[in-house]
Amino acid sequence: MEYSFPRYLLSKQSVDDRALNKDVLHALKSNLPPEPLRIIEVGAGIGTMLRRLIRWGVIHQAEYVLVDEMSENVEYASAWIPQWAEESGFGVERSGTHRIRLTNTDFDIQVELFPADVFDFVKTNPMPADVLIAHAFLDLLPMPDSLEKLLNLTKELAWLTLNFDGVTTFEPIIDDETDALIESRYHTTMDTRPTGGSSRSGRRLFSHVKSLDVEIFAAGSSDWVVHSVNGLYPEDEKYFLEFILHFVEDSVWTCPQFPKEKLDEWLAARRGQISNGELTYIAHQLDFLLKKKSRD
Q: Do the beta carbons of residue 94 and residue 100 sit within 8 Å?
C-alpha cells in the first residue's frame, strides 16, 4: 500500500468530527468576538479544520491563516480548498498561489496559506489573531515553552484540540503481552522525539497553563473511536486505520526487545482484522479552550 500523508489527513476528517469535544466547541462558539474574525491555525495540514468550521457554521466572516511547515500539505491545501469550496457552492477567487477567498450569500472567508516553520511564523506574524487553533499538534512539541510562544499569536482565545493522552487500544486483543509491549514502545517513541513531544501531553496541559497568563475556560475528552458497522468502516476510515498501523510499524520495528518477525505477525493479524471489519481502534485525547486573563 502507498502511504500518503495528505490522504491520511483527509481520511481522518470523519474520525475527528466525532471526536471533537462538543462542550468545548460550544464554549468556543459562545465566546467568539464579533465577526469578522482573524484566526490562525498552526500545524494546519491541508485545511480540514477550516472546512469543518465553515460546514458547522462556526465562522462566517473571517481571515483564516493556515501555517504548516510541510510543503506537501500546503501544496495539497492550495488545490483542495478551492475544490471542496466550489463543490459546496462557494465562489472562489485566487490571488497568487497562497491566497484564496471563499464567498457566498452567508460566508466571506479570506484564506492565506503559509508554508513555514511555526516558530519562525511567530516571530514575523504582523497581527495576533482572535483565535489560535492547534489541532492534533501540541503533542509533537516541547512543552511548556512551545505553548508560551504560540500564545503570542492570539489576543484572547486558544482552541487546542486532540492532544494525545497516553492510551492506544486495539481490539480484539491478539496477545496481552505483545499488545502491551507494542503500545508501550509506540508511546516511548512519542516521549523521545528529538523535536520534543509527549504521550501524555493532554493531562500535562493542565499543569503547563498554570505558569502562563491564561486560564482553562473549558476542557474535555476527544477520543478517537473507530469501528465498523455491519463489517464496513464509514467514509475512508479503513485507510485511516491502515495509516495508524503504518505509524506503529515505523515506531516499533527498531525496538531491540521486539523481534521483527513477531511485529510482522502482529501487523498481518491487525491488517486482516481491518480487511474483515473486525478491528476497533481507540486513542484517548483531550480538548482545551484557553482564554488569556484580562489585564485591568
A: yes
The residues of the chain scoring below 50 in pLDDT are none
Taking only the tens place, the pLDDT of each residue in 157-197 is: 999 999 999 999 999 999 898 899 888 888 888 888 777 88
Q: List own/partner pairs for 259-268 with CB under 8 A and 24 or more apart.
A: 262/178, 263/182, 266/174, 266/178, 266/179, 266/182
pTM: 0.95
How remote is the C-alpha of 32 from its chain's centroid? 21
Using only C-alpha atoms, the chain has a radius of gyration, in whole angstroms, of 20
- Give the helix/strand (H/E) hosting 16: helix 13-19
Residue 40 has what pLDDT? 98
234 forms beta bridges with none
Question: What is the total residue count of the chain?
Answer: 296
Handedness of CA 89, 90, 91, 95 (dihedral sign): negative
Short-list 110, 148, 239, CA closest to 134: 148
Q: In the prediction, which pLDDT does 178 show?
A: 87
For Cα atoms 89, 90, 94, give the angle at the middle one, nearest 5 degrees. 140
CATH topology for the 5-292 domain: Rossmann fold (3.40.50)
Kind and range of the H or E run holding 93: strand 91-94
191 Rama sector, left if φ>0, alpha if ψ -120 to 50, beta otherwise: alpha
Q: Residue ranges per domain, the chain? A: 5-292
Taking alpha carbons only, the member of 157, 160, 154, 153 closest to residue 123 is: 153
Report which of 130, 173, 113 is spatially closest to residue 35, judged by C-alpha positions.
Answer: 130
